[in-house]
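Quick board copy: two proteins, each given as sequence then tokens.
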Amino acid sequence: MRSSSGGRAGPVIAVHGGAWAIPADLTAASVDGCRGAADAGWRALDGDGSAVDAVEAAVRALELDPVFDAGRGSVLTSAGAVELDAVIMDGASLDAGAVAALGPCLHPITVARRVMDASNHVLLVGAGADAFARERGIPAAAPEDLVTDAAREEWAAMAAFPAAVGELFNRGHDTVGAVAMDAGGNVAAATSTGGITFKRPGRVGDSPIVGAGALADNDLGAISTTGHGESILRFTLASRVLSAVGAGASPDAALRDALAAMRARTGGCGGAVCLDARGRVGVAFSTDRMAWATRDAAGARAGIDRDVDAETDAEDDGVWFSAPLGPKLT
């Protein structure tokens, strides 16, 4: 798996479908959706494909899948509207693009990509983000084309806000994301979400924020996070993890330590997929479950449940690893 270029791994992609209390009836679909997204990202890496293209392709696949709270499948605000957040970052140039409180749109990650590639800004919000998307030829979507019956039922059940939303926050929710390394050793990260059911209109979580919801730097690696957005924002989770990786920690250890510390300091749970500058993958979560998948030249892996055979002690800090370096899946 290692190349001769400084011990760096070959092309690799890792995706997540959100860290939360994923119910049994969504288990198979969540894993299958992540596996399909990893395949889409892997195809984008073929030949001279870029890491940025790969993470966009992977997240677009997740946004198309109504199982996930991103694009199609997005949840509703307390006003019954859809507001979307997304970010993408190129680790080679440190260019980034993001949107927040974007109106109904099937692929908010592509709007974020256009912000990165075709504007002088990093983050556009609300009506300004909507106008930019239209200027760039990205159509609006009808809310009914994005919101599933399950999302409508959850919105109705969350009418007891804020107590109910606090419970959902503590479990996390299904933000989606991806990290990748291409054949040239360049890394990228992307994250997209429909937010949290019954959130206040205008609320923005960690997902579109560089250093919280995602971060990519060729010198350090790449990360996409998921979970309780307010905790991840306050803790600047993505930055903390990559700082530890840059200081020599493995992606697994950096994720484990940061998630445990975030829970201890803020009470919030979450998860992430991460790559270091050598292309080594880390996957960890402190919620009940997190759907994830990886793909490299040697094959594919995917999972959702806690790894009971891992050497980590869940009773110590509640952080679990889904060992991505275990047996390959066919």
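And the next:
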Amino acid sequence: MTIRVVLVDDQALVRTGFRMILDETGDIEVVGEAGDGTAAIAAVTRAKPDVVLVDVRMPGMDGIEATRRIRGLPTPPRVIILTIDLDEYVFAGLHAGASGFLLKDTLAADLVSAVRVVVTGEAVAAPSVTRRLIAHFLSAAPTRPKQPERLAILTARERELLTLITHGRSNAEIAADLHLSGGTVKTHVGRILAKLELRDRVQAVILGYECGLVADGDR
């Protein structure tokens, strides 16, 4: 299967560089480009890609709003946020529905790997990295009331898994911790996401923090 990608960045040279890397893979095809958020919506609607790489900072409609609108489409593609550093814009992008983030100076192999990974429904960054990023910006944000009642729909086992996900544990690590098979963990994670109407693991980590599954001393 060929993975269809749209590139969104206000710098043409950046788009050209990424296109050259992705088009050489054989299984990834760049099917559209855009220089701002407004053009990105049109490009995504027209090309119907599987993955969109979006620069977080652009004139006009920025990458955060573009991500929110792209993820709100009837059949939304996965979104990877592009950034020059890990700042509050990255967290806002994740909250808007992005499946992860990449630094613009990332290695070519990591760029290709990220595109392939998000198509499967996984997050780009390692769970522990995503966890640290979310912890950092949630701790700096205004305190929000905890909403543990949101998790009442989960079974005890599912809540246990969500807690481990929030702590940055991968599926393999969770399987080892709970003496379960990898397939069983994957099934549980899928059910958790479906019950809580979450897009992916990144959204699950954010919700876990907002529901108080990680104590302040654990951050």
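Board note added afterward: The first helix runs from residue 12 to 23.
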